[in-house]
Design brief:
The chain contains three helices and 65 strands. The protein is mostly beta strands. A ten-stranded parallel beta sheet has the order 37-40-43-46-49-52-55-58-61-64, with no helix packed on it. A ten-stranded parallel beta sheet has the order 39-42-45-48-51-54-57-60-63-65, with no helix packed on it. Strands 38-41-44-47-50-53-56-59-62 form a nine-stranded parallel beta sheet, with no helix packed on it. A hairpin with a 7-residue loop joins strand 32 and strand 33. The longest helix has 18 residues.
Length: 824
């Protein structure tokens, strides 16, 4: 068959199909529209099925459908969708916001549905032209009888315990209705302690308008509502929350909240070397507070949160079978994480059967003392006849006492090592493999807890963090938890409170000055004016705690007493001293305490220098001298050697301490190595070399100002900074030989200095500056990793710069400029 014949036959088939379908009213009618071919399609559900609402109430979300080709590959846009209700029969009032929406470009169309007057399941279809019934979307929605049904539930704030007097609970009591809706909820105090008269509810934690029954409205978006409970007396409270919406049916209404008000007064005292605390319940006696708060007693818990011993065997539990998880089998202690103190099995200096875990004191002893009218401590724990009496006789106070010590902790800088004659009584001495690093301490977390009915500990009712640097003994022993008194003079350091209930604590700050601070040894009585200021830390300063004491190096004039503090925080007073015996020193110590026992201090030194004398030996240069010392000087840690206008005929070797030379002549070399700081001031002459090697990092800058060094100046392998010249207060120096600044990890500056030989700046990793120097030889700048500045130097020979990571400069003169300095 030819193509025209096939087309002709197809037209006749469509013609008969068209008329056979009944779509054409007459065969011979004229001007009829051309028939449209109907391609089979489908409608699918996108979202909005299985929703629930009350009868005659619109569903919360729209119903969304999509029109697609039968195989799902083609989106049918601009298609009219027909929504219809199939069941239930007999329902009236069911409706759609738009029963015949048109699909958008993505083939979707939507409508809102409102069920009719009958409850039950509503079956809905969504169809379109050329969609067979099997390809239509069919789904169900549900109508509930009467008003909408909501579920009421607690959303937070239940089972809280408030411990701060006159302050309510931290969180509000919150409820939530689901699905979210705006409905009225009424909170009511349904149960309170029998002596409660002013407990109330408030919309805010600050109070404001209060009442025992408070209506609130839930948020329409989240369904949440909340109120605060403001208790007035210790005990347990119950608050009910009712759904009072007339148009809502609330499931699970009312819900009940149970809150416990257990107001506490806990005071701490960091008594220099001992931590003392007292708990006094607001409810009166401890027994009354136990009943009000739902406990059988109160106790303390303590944990060690940081321990830095130098030897892993510093502490060893007596019973290895009860070693806590962070004390390993060989006795090594590592914290954090925190470990209970004392741990199960206790420390080596307690009896093996002493095991209060997880409490600080044995619970049976505490409960017995709290409930017994006799077996109690008279006052504070420190005055008790037995270290295990914790409760006052009137049953109103529970005490805490700890005098921890770790003899491996260091003494303050310059006071020698821990393992000296003062500490021979320490039973731990053989466990210390040397001193712990400066700044080491033992850190604690101490908590007041309730003893629950089952003997376990409640969550913390009050807590504080503190640290101890004490390295002496208590009762002849050294342990981390001790009820024994401190042994007088057995060590240095003390305790400091670092936080109260999560609030960081800082001690008071004291500034002090002495005028005059230097006296002439004329034997006269002098009134030294001491003045300064006091600034409180986190806690307020206790009145009457600003005190002074005088330490006389000869042990003769040592007055002490209180200081009047002015309203602006300043103070001033005078101290009478005798200006006799050159080399004598008076140290005036000022201290004050805040209301948690943290101590601030300041020292002012009044010295009587020896204007004509010299050190008694080459190893005793600790003071101020102006005479001529014949021989070599050695300056070590804790010494401060000052020469004003004197001379040293030999060499000076410094391995620590502080050295100051002003208008002083040194006949040999000055060698500083391994430690110490130095200050070389104008008119000082060193006939030999100045060599400085291997200094550790230091916040102090070493300086050479306006001096004459007839030999070489070498500053090598140091982690402390140096300035040779640099500003009007530190004029340039004259060096007869070479200057070498090499291999340093701290900054170095050489400025306005005359160098007869070469100036070398090499292999430094920290910044270096060479400014306005006069160099008789070469200036060589090589292989520096730190930034380097070369500015305004006058170089007689060559200026050579190579392999520097970062170098800048300008204004230099030289017979020849090479490398990176070619344009400088």
């Amino acid at each position: 068959m030819s193509r025209p014949q096939a087309q002709h036959k197809l037209q006749w088939l469509l013609f008969f199909c068209f008329f056979g379908s009944g779509l054409a009213p007459t065969l011979f009618a004229t001007e009829q529209p051309k028939p449209r071919v109907c391609l089979l399609s489908q409608v699918i559900l996108v979202s909005g099925a299985n929703q629930t609402s009350a009868v005659s109430t619109t569903l919360p979300n729209p119903i969304v459908v999509q029109a697609l080709s039968l195989d799902g590959t083609v989106i049918e846009s601009n298609t009219t969708i027909s929504f219809s209700v199939v069941s239930p029969t007999g329902a009236t009032g069911a409706s759609f916001s738009n029963p015949n929406p048109t699909t958008a470009s993505d083939g979707t169309a939507s409508t809102l549905f409102t069920p009719g007057n009958l409850p039950g399941s509503y079956q809905i279809t969504a169809s379109a032209r050329c969609v067979l019934p099997a390809n239509a979307a069919t789904f169900n929605e549900t109508a509930l009888p009467g008003t909408p049904t909501l579920t009421l539930a607690k959303a937070g704030g239940d089972n809280q315990t408030a411990t701060v007097p006159n302050i309510g609970f931290a969180l509000p009591m919150a409820v939530q209705v689901t699905p979210p809706a705006s409905v009225p909820i009424t909170f009511t105090i349904s149960q309170a302690p029998s002596n409660s008269t002013q407990a109330s509810l408030s919309a805010t934690s600050a109070g404001g308008t209060t009442t025992t029954s408070l209506p609130v409205q839930t948020d329409p978006t989240t369904g949440l509502a909340s109120v605060y409970l403001l208790p007035d007396v210790a005990g347990q409270y119950q608050v009910s929350a009712f759904c009072t919406a007339a148009t809502s049916i609330c499931i699970n209404s009312p819900v009940m909240f149970t809150e416990t008000y257990c107001p506490l007064n806990v005071t701490q005292d960091a008594a220099r070397k001992t931590m003392i605390a007292h708990f006094t319940p607001s409810a009166g006696s401890l027994v009354a507070a136990e009943k009000a708060c739902g406990f059988v007693g109160f106790n303390w818990q303590q944990k060690i949160t940081s321990f830095t011993p130098p030897d892993p065997k510093t502490i060893v539990p007596r019973n290895p079978a009860l070693i806590p998880q962070n004390i390993s089998s060989d006795g090594s202690f590592f914290a954090p994480p925190a470990v209970f103190d004392p741990p199960p099995g206790s420390w080596i200096y307690f009896d093996s059967d002493y095991n209060p875990y997880p409490f600080y004191y044995p619970s049976s002893d505490v409960i017995s003392q709290e409930q017994s009218p006799t077996n109690k401590c008279v006052a504070t724990l420190s005055n008790c006849p037995s270290s295990l009496y914790m409760v006052s006789q009137d049953d109103t106070t529970l005490a805490f006492y700890d005098s921890p010590s770790d003899q491996c902790l260091p003494n303050p800088p310059g006071t020698g090592t821990v393992l000296n004659a003062v500490h021979q009584v320490n039973l731990w001495r053989n466990h210390c493999a040397g001193e712990a690093p400066q700044g080491s301490d033992v850190e604690f977390l101490t908590m007041l807890v309730g003893i629950n009915q089952d003997g376990t500990a409640s969550s913390p009712l009050s807590q504080w963090t503190w640290k101890s640097t004490f390295n002496g003994t208590a009762g002849g022993i050294a342990v981390t938890s001790s009820n024994l008194p401190i042994d007088p003079g057995s060590g240095t350091g003390g305790v400091t409170i670092t936080g109260l209930n999560g609030v960081p604590q800082t001690p008071p700050t004291i500034n002090c000055n002495a005028n005059p601070n230097t006296l002439s040894p004329d034997g006269q009585s002098v009134s030294v004016a001491i003045s300064g200021s006091v600034l409180a830390g986190t806690s307020t300063i206790l009145p009457g705690t600003l005190l002074f004491s005088v330490d006389d190096s000869e042990g003769q004039i040592e007055p002490s007493g209180p200081i009047a503090l002015n309203s602006d925080g300043t103070y001033s007073f005078t101290v009478p001293v005798i200006a006799s015996d050159a080399g004598r020193e008076y140290t005036v110590q000022i201290t004050t305490s805040d209301n948690v026992g943290n101590v601030g201090s300041c020292s002012a030194l009044v010295s009587i220098p020896n204007p004509l004398g010299v050190p008694s030996s080459g190893n005793t240069c600790n003071g101020t001298f102006t005479g001529t010392f014949n021989g070599n000087l050695n300056i070590s840690t804790a010494q401060t050697c000052v020469f004003e206008g004197g001379s040293i005929t030999g060499n000076i070797t410094q391995t620590g301490g502080d050295l100051l030379l002003n208008n002083t002549a040194v006949g040999g070399n000055l060698h500083v190595m391994g430690g110490g700081t130095f200050l070389i001031l104008p008119s000082t002459t060193i006939d030999g070399d100045l060599q400085v090697n291997n200094l550790p990092a230091s916040p102090s800058e070493n300086q050479v100002c306006g001096a004459t060094i007839n030999g070489n100046l070498q500053y090598q392998n140091n982690a402390a900074s140096i300035a040779v010249g640099g500003d009007p207060s530190c004029p340039g120096t004259t060096v007869g030989g070479n200057v070498q600044i090499q291999n340093n990890t701290a900054s170095a500056t050489v400025s306005t200095t005359h160098v007869t030989g070469d100036l070398q700046d090499q292999n430094n990793s920290a910044p270096t500056q060479l400014v306005a120097n006069t160099v008789g030889g070469n200036l060589q700048v090589q292989n520096n990793a730190g930034s380097t500045q070369i500015v305004n130097n006058s170089v007689q020979k060559n200026l050579e710069c190579n392999n520097n990571a970062s170098i800048t400069g300008g204004g230099n003169t030289a017979s020849q400029k090479q490398g990176q300095c070619a344009n400088f």
